[in-house]
Amino acid sequence: MNKLPDVRGRITYISSHAKQENLYAVYETTDRHYWTELAKCNQRDFQKSGIEGKCIEAREFIIALPESFPDLYDPDKLLQLFTDRFKKKYSVECVAALHHNKPKTNYHIHLIFSERELLSEPIEKTATRNMFYDEQGKHARTKKEILDENGNVRKGCKVIKKGEIYERNLFTAKNKLFKQDNFVDEVKHFYTDLINTLVKDDKEKLHVFDENGLYLATKKIGKNNPKAEQIQTDNKYRMRWNREVDRAIVSGVAETEIQQIKKEYISDRIRESVDVFGNQPERLGTILMTAVGVLAILISKVLQKARELSAKLFDTGQIPPQTPKQEPVSKPAKKETPSKPKIPPKPVMSAGAAAYPKLSKIYKELKRQNEIIFEAEKERNALEFERDDLKGLARFTKKGELQSKIDRKNEEINILKIGLSGIAKRYGYQNVQELYKIYHQSHNAYIAYREQEAEWEKIYGIKAQEDTIQDKIQKFQKKIYQQNEQIPKQKDRGAR
Q: How far apart are CA 110 and CA 101, in angstroms?
């Protein structure tokens, strides 16, 4: 979001074909005269406030769109949709333009909006006496204060006679919502949800980064940025942490423990570094690599413990303890009046449950990749132990060879970790945490569906119906037998 000190100039710039190489559409919710009056209102209030700096006449959002949209949607209709949705939500007038950058790699919308609403009726103030204003527009108590040596009104000063309108307000006060820190985040979520309903490919779906989450955000490197090299280096360290977080989740490390390491070894350490050494971005790499090391040690402990437990259970033939299923409390049976039983519809699998087989496949793929990484780390650790245990002449002859093997193994492990994070992204998920959250929801939905289906089959399924038919046959046979028993036997008339 940008603050605009010259809203009319900015509108001209974003909506002009002469100034924009790839301008596809312009959409306005009101006429240009509105923005002229808005600018006057804001400038007048700014002068009254006496605040130094620039007057903010309006604000602007720049909204990045997926690169598939030019082929999918008409530019005019797309721009109108995004603008009207914003106006409906925040009740402000807008002017928007849809652009591509010069190499056509950035399809985006410029959305300019007012911080004020137009009043249904203007508020006019009438002078009850002559009013005097100096060159800065400040109110003077007497006419003498705005006169020159010859007794004439100085240039730039103004006199408003009694009965004249000295102030006319067309707009409300500025909406304080637009100045709040969480407003931009709110609009990000608002437009992200809208974009995700329009994309056809799940891989193009967008996500709003959670600054309080487990991961670290990478920074975008702008054109001709003098700090490009430092930002690029920092991004590499941030990605190292993010990949380690992905692996920790696959390994079964609790998210609360990951969050605690992030707070203690990253957030707190950065704050301490700034307090002691000032702003030194080059120290970030050391801080992040320490945090990655701590998290890697925790992952190794969790995996080793899980392996030992699995081996123990396998050797003893025990089954891991499970939480006992809570059976529903049965209510006293009521006497049912004879009626024709109605078979309820068979349970239908939800979309979440239907996605479980595919998610389960991805889940197993992540587990297999993590096992490969774990084995590679064990090999690396063994090499490090062998290197550190060298004595005598071997320290000089074999150490270099072992170190080369360790370096190659570390490169292999790093590539495997990149592959682990890449699995989730390949299937259209932002990270492993998002995938695991959806996986567990789908798993629970799938289990619930299977239980409902089994219960329905038990009561109303084919086997239950066969049992019911057999019961009816037995009852019919019993009824015939009882009727036969009630008929008296006749004597043989041929006997004398």
A: 12
Phi, psi of 160 (to 5 degrees): -110, 120
What is the pTM for the complete model shown? 0.61
CA of residue 27 relative to chain centroid, distance: 28
Extract the tokens encoding 24: 């596809």
Residue 469, number of CB atoms within 10 A of its CB: 9
Residue 490 confidence (pLDDT): 52
Element (H, E) at 28: strand 22-28
The backbone region for 224, taken as left when phi is positive above 0, alpha when psi lies in -120 to 50, beta otherwise, is left
Task: From residue 386, give the alpha-carbon distance in Å to each of 376, 397, 405, 421.
Answer: 16, 13, 11, 31
What does the block give as tokens for 96?
């928007």
Question: Which amino acid is residue 383, in one-letter code?
Answer: L
- Rounded to an integer, the average pLDDT of 400-415 is 92
Across residues 413-436, what is the average pLDDT? 90
| pLDDT 10s digits, 338-376 | 454 578 888 999 999 999 999 999 999 999 999 999 999
Q: Tell the residue number behind the tokens 């072992």, with chain if given.
A: 402
pLDDT score recorded for residue 465: 61
Closest CA to 430 of 192, 191, 222: 192
As a whole number of angstroms, the distance between CA 373 and CA 364 comes to 14
Could you please report the per-residue DSSP string of 291-354?
HHHHHHHHHHHHHHHHHHHHHHHHHHT-----PPP-PPPPPPPPPPPP----PPPPP---HHHH
Does residue 273 or residue 211 have the better pLDDT? Answer: 273
CA pair distance 488, 8, nearest whole angstrom: 112
Give the integer Cα–Cα distance in Å for 367 and 357. Answer: 15
For 64, the enclosing helix (H) or strand (E) is strand 58-65
- Confirm if 33 and 92 have CB atoms less than 8 A apart: no
Does residue 190 come out as left (phi exceeding 0), alpha (psi in the -120 to 50 range) or beta? Answer: alpha
Amino acid at 382: A
Q: In what order do the strands lie in the sheet with 22-28?
A: 2-4, 58-65, 107-113, 94-100, 22-28
Average pLDDT for 127-153? 85
Structure tokens at 285: 């790499």
The answer to whether 255 and 222 are in contact (CB under 8 A) is no
For residue 461, count other CB atoms closer than 10 A to its CB. 15
Cβ partners under 8 Å of residue 248, min gap 6: 258, 295, 298, 299
Q: How many CB atoms lie within 10 A of CB 175?
A: 16
Pairing of strands 158-160, 131-133: antiparallel
Q: Is the pLDDT of residue 58 over 50?
A: yes
Alpha helices by DSSP H, 317-461 = 351-354, 356-388, 394-397, 399-426, 432-460
Which phi and psi (to 5°) does residue 167 adopt?
A: -150, 135
